Amino acid sequence: MRYELDIYGVLVPALLLWLIVAYALSAVASRILQRFGFYRLVWHRALFNFALYVCLLGVVVYLSEFLP
């Protein structure tokens, strides 16, 4: 994993980028789950959304290892 990304001469922590990507994926997944009525089965929606975000962040960071 690269720890810093150079974006037009500005060094940005890689984790910041992965956090933003995971948040976007989490928002999309939340809307899809809401559309299909999955949240009727969830006891605590906010806790479930946080767990979903953490899992997606782990997947994004893991997949970042395979980027050139």
Binned, the helix content reads 55-70%
Q: Order of SSEs, N→C?
A: EEHH
In DSSP terms, counting alpha (H) and pi (I) runs of 4 or more, how many helices?
2
Largest sheet: 2 strands, antiparallel
Distance between the first and last residues' Cα: 10 Å
Helix-strand makeup class: mainly alpha
Q: What characteristic shape results from the CA principal axes?
A: elongated
**β-sheet strand percentage:** 5-15%
List the helices and strands and how they pair.
Elements: E1 4-7, E2 10-13, H1 14-35, H2 45-64
Antiparallel strand pairs: 1-2
Helix pairs in contact: 1-2
Features:
single chain; 68 residues; mainly alpha; two-stranded antiparallel sheet; 2 helices; 62% helix; elongated
